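COMPLEX REQUEST
Ligand: C2E
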Amino acid sequence: SAKNRGKARYEIFSPAMHNIAMKKLALENQLKRVISKKELVVYYQPIVALKNNLLVGFEALVRWQTSEQKLISPQDFIPLAENIGIIIDIDLWVLREACLQLRFWQEQGLINNPLSVAVNLSTKQFSQPDFIENIDNILAETGLEGQYLKLEITENVLIENAELTREIFKQLQQREIQICLDDFGTGYSSLSYLQNFPINKIKIDRSFISQMDDNDSNPAIVRAMMMIANELNIEVIAEGIETLTQLEFLHLLGCHYVQGYWFSPPQNREKIELWLESFSQNNLQNCNNWLLPS
Ligand code: C2E
Ligand code: MG
Ligand code: MG
Ligand code: MG
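STATUS: Structure written out below.
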């Protein structure tokens, strides 16, 4: 009967939705304590200059290692962290950790050429009145110079509060901190902001790179991005390189930097250190096959 169907529907949907809501609530509560419980870990993914195969730096990518030793991807908790406002603290924690790590590698002599670390920031960070003060404190505490730090933002930052953002960029430039526009090409804003803001690098989103996978593919969009960037004197980093075909395409197009599983996935501090050690022991400036110790 209709009544039974109605009841059945009620039983199918409501408990499930209740379940999802409860799980989300539990996760949010866990997330609030993620810093005090020291459950965040930073992974590092190498970034390579295409012209000479030199390692130029790392992107810092956060993971959540739960007490049950589960590793949660940022995709699954950053949006939640943004909702409950804890993202500000998470970003600053990652920033401090990444600066400390790079400074440590510098002091250990594990890295000699001017490698940098790039840290992702949520749009919310730019509306914090003490953002620059926090940056200054972190640089002072860790001893890292601004020239070795890059900040990755998305174009939302430029749209949401253009005037404030302009002022913050000025402050960052004074500290020689570079600004990278992440996930380039996936947003909705016009290209004019590239001219109106001092962007140092754009990172072409993986979705465009994965389209360049066979010899028939037409990398028109990526080529167009390269042309715009070249015109504006902005360097280009291609994200998510997984195949040699993609790499060869990017080489042909004159892309400056590359990053992706082809070279290395993001790895924890220990693995990166092993890798850097094998570099310096063998006196390598670069590594043509990019074999990582497993
Ligand atoms: P993103 O900044 O665009 O980072 C690149 C993502 O692509 C990373 O995912 C990286 O692991 C992944 N990736 C790199 N190379 C390849 C490849 O060859 N193939 C594939 N399939 N994937 C590749 P991850 O680490 O899961 O991070 C996802 C996103 O979470 C990041 O995207 C960034 O937007 C955000 N995120 C990560 N760490 C932080 C953080 O500390 N703060 C903030 N606010 N966001 C962060
Ligand atoms: Mg990024
Ligand atoms: Mg990206
Ligand atoms: Mg992203």
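REMARKS: The mean pLDDT is 88. The longest strand covers residues 55-65.
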